């Protein structure tokens, strides 16, 4: 058998295996085999478009392209799948696990999401924490984590770009980029309004209205208002001590866009957006973990939370951007200007209980379990400003060689205040001592990319980016009651980096593309100065650099009724920035590991199984490993003073008491296996369409922290959702019912390691109904 005929045989077997696994029509299977062998299909359908999947257009390389032609691992979320995930006004964390290798979690609830791609992320809870996953909303990088939780509404598409994006995006993206594109103004009158209700007295309103003001100007206003009542009550036996009810929220956001297009060569898109959020901070539940296990203690009641602290969270963000586009004869010019500002304040009872009952601290009653000392703190961002500017030029002529080149500028100023409260004094007054951080960041970059069509079947791409980063940071701890100051401690950092990538696409057939890519990424140095007392000093982590290899296949199957994308990858990150807990106090420390490695596989599959059924299936395997034989971290703080209420670390002891070695451990919050699945049924009934859709995700267990301990290891989690509805009036009206986490499985998602066995939980089951009108 020749090499060419062998390839055809393999592809035929793959096509027939997929056909046997899913109930596609026999005609599709015959057609797939025919396409693979080059023989005619006797029963091929008369039409080439009926039941076909729509072409997915992405801008992962800053140009609009068919996803099949882009030589990198990409997943998209849009349409029905995005609608069902956001049912019940879920925040951005509902996307966790819904694309291969993507995880999203938070220790601050809806306000502070943390993103992970292929296991690479950052567990730091400091408001100055950087992340290795870039977040781009409407072409503007959102650097601070508080900007990354903007509600998902009126979104055209979400793109998950896996692997380093160090050339065209560049800004702190060695793991990848999450890219959100809002629906843009169009020159016709249209819109929608959705009203929703749910359990816990949830109420949601979402809508958009698009209107052409003239032949050259179009406006689009969209917004959302999400509210839920409290669902957890304070059962502290001391009457009226602390906040009484929790987990309610109000989240309001809007976006106003204006498109000005006086002619076919020039356009200006103006965008203004705001978010106003208020609600509860995350509930830290004391002694909720059974020692020696990752089980929740017996008798746990989700609806009760005994505390003596005050709990609230407030976030206000606003921003604007201007995107100008001018088409010359052979070149298109872009200018993208963005400004973001936020104010944030969050306060919580971190010890997770009430009173205290050990050593020199005896305030009774107390509980649940051991409460060794009170920890009631607040962190705020009273000052934050971010400005970005990009100039980009790209070729638009015909020919084998195409290019992109540009300049990027980033400027950010932030102030962070960290304070504590005297929980046992009347009114929980502010303590006199506090910590403060200031940071000014400036970065500029120049970048370029070339695409070259070598032949009808082979296309290659390459890019390079030079980045210069400068940070001026200072941190101090003030205690006016003692007349003492620790600091200010200044840290000045300047770093430079050259990132590059090289990739290629080979067209094996009209339906099948093979791709390969090697790319580098970079994250600027990080500082942290959440000083806990007058003896602490800030911590610093140097720049990290990633090198990644990936290869894969993108294939249309069964005359484009199904689509498969698969990739294998391997990466190495030098000087990986990690966040270690202090072990004994409520602060983190930045460290660099010599090296972190990762390898794995990602698969995306979608298909129209018949006229009534469609489905998607995705999965990933990520094997990460910290490689630094000398790297040690402190573990759970009460292991010596209160061993009954402490964790049981399993790593080898370090050279100092209370430390362990973490060489060989996987990265935290990095599940090895993730799976996602959706199935939709739709059928015309009467004068409308009935549909039912279910979605499921699975993720394996992961470590909460850098070290291993059974108490601090998340259980595997399977979550499912359902949505059923009816559309009528040619799609003008829609009514639907939904459920999220329908099995009501409650597990630990994270923990506090410095105190007792305190943990945080996932969301319980929610359900509700929506009514939508399109106009």
Detailed description of the structure:
It is built from three helices and 43 strands. The protein has two domains: 1-46, no CATH class; 47-523 and 531-774, TonB-dependent receptor, beta-barrel domain (Maltoporin, Chain A, Beta Barrel). It has 775 residues and is mainly beta.
- Sheet-strand content, in percent, reads over 45%
| Bulk shape | globular
Which class of the largest domain in CATH terms? Mainly Beta
Q: How much helix, percentage-wise, in residues?
A: under 10%
Mind telling me the CATH superfamily name of the largest domain?
A: TonB-dependent receptor, beta-barrel domain
CATH architecture of the largest domain: Beta Barrel
How is the CATH topology of the largest domain named? Maltoporin, Chain A
What's the β-strand tally?
43
What structural class do you assign from the helix and strand content?
Answer: mainly beta
Summary, kept brief:
This protein has 775 residues and is mainly beta. Helices cover 5% and strands 55% of the residues.
Please give a handful of descriptors for the protein shown.
22-stranded antiparallel beta barrel; disordered N terminus; single chain; 2 domains; 5% helix; globular; mainly beta; Maltoporin, Chain A; 775 residues; five-stranded mixed beta sheet
């Amino acid at each position: 058998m020749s090499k060419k005929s062998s390839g055809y045989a393999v592809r035929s077997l793959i096509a027939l295996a997929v056909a046997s696994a899913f109930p596609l029509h026999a005609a599709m299977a015959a057609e797939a085999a025919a396409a693979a062998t080059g023989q005619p299909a006797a029963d091929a359908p008369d039409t080439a478009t009926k039941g076909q999947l729509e072409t997915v257009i992405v801008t992962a390389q800053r140009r609009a392209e068919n996803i099949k032609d882009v030589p990198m691992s990409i997943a998209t979320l849009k349409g029905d799948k995005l609608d069902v995930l956001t049912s019940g006004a879920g925040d951005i964390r509902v996307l966790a696990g819904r694309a291969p290798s993507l995880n999203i979690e938070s220790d601050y609830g809806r306000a502070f999401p943390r993103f992970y791609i292929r296991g690479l992320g950052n567990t730091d809870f400091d408001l100055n924490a950087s992340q290795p996953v870039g977040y781009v909303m409407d072409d503007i990088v959102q650097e601070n984590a508080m900007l990354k939780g903007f509600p998902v509404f009126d979104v055209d598409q979400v793109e998950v770009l896996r692997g380093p994006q160090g050339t065209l995006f560049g800004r702190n993206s060695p793991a990848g980029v999450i890219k959100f594109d809002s629906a843009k103004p169009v020159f016709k009158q249209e819109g929608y309004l959705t009203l929703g209700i749910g359990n816990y007295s949830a109420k949601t309103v979402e809508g958009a209205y698009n209107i052409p003001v003239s032949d050259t100007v179009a406006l689009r206003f969209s917004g959302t208002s999400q509210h839920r009542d409290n669902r957890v009550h304070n059962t502290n036996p001391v009457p009226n001590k602390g906040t009484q009810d929790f987990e309610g929220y109000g989240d309001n956001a809007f976006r106003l866009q204006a498109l000005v297009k006086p002619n076919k060569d020039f356009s200006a898109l103006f965008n203004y957006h705001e978010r106003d959020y208020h609600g509860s901070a995350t509930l830290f539940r004391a002694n909720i973990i059974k020692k020696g296990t990752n089980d929740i203690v017996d008798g746990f009641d989700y609806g009760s939370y005994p505390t003596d602290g005050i709990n609230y969270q407030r976030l206000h963000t606003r921003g604007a951007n201007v995107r100008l586009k001018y088409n010359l004869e052979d070149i298109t010019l872009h200018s993208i200007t963005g400004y973001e500002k936020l104010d944030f304040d969050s306060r919580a009872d971190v010890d997770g209980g009430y009173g205290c009952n050990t050593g020199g601290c005896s305030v009774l009653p107390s509980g649940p379990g051991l409460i060794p000392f009170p920890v009631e703190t607040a962190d705020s961002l009273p000052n934050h400003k971010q400005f970005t500017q990009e100039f980009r030029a790209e070729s638009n002529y015909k020919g084998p060689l195409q290019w992109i080149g540009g300049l990027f500028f980033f400027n950010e100023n932030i102030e962070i205040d960290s304070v504590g409260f005297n929980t046992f004094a009347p009114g929980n007054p502010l303590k006199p001592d506090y910590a403060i951080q200031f940071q000014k960041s400036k970065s500029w970059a120049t970048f370029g990319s070339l695409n070259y069509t070598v032949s009808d079947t082979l296309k290659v791409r390459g890019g390079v980016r030079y980045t210069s980063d400068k940070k001026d940071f200072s941190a101090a701890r003030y205690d006016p009651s003692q007349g003492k100051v620790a600091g200010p401690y200044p840290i000045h950092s300047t770093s430079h980096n050259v990132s590059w990538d090289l990739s290629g696409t080979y067209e094996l057939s009209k339906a099948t593309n093979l791709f390969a890519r090697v790319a580098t990424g970079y994250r600027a140095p990080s500082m942290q100065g959440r000083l806990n007392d007058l003896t602490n000093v800030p911590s610093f982590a140097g720049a990290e650099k990633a090198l990644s290899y990936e290869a894969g296949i993108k294939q249309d199957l069964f005359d484009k009724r199904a689509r498969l994308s698969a990739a294998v990858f391997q990466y190495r990150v030098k000087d990986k920035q990690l966040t270690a807990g202090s072990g004994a106090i409520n602060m983190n420390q930045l460290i660099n590991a010599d090296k972190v490695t990762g390898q794995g596989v990602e698969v995306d599959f979608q298909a129209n199984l018949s006229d009534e059924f469609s489905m998607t299936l995705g999965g990933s395997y990520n094997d990460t490993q910290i490689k630094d034989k000398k790297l040690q971290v402190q573990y759970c703080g009460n292991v010596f003073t209160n061993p009954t209420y402490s964790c049981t670390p399993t790593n080898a002891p370090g050279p100092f008491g209370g430390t362990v070695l973490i060489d060989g451990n996987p990265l935290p919050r990095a599940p090895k296996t993730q799976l996602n699945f959706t199935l939709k049924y739709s059928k015309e009934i009467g004068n409308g369409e009935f549909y039912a859709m279910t979605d499921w995700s699975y993720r394996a267990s992961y470590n909460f922290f850098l070290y291993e301990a059974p108490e601090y290891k998340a259980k595997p989690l399977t979550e499912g959702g359902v949505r059923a509805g009816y559309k009528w009036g040619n799609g003008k009206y829609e009514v639907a019912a939904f459920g999220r986490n329908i099995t009501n499985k409650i597990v630990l998602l994270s923990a506090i390691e410095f105190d007792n066995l305190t943990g945080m939980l996932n969301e319980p089951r929610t359900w509700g109904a929506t009514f939508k009108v399109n106009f």
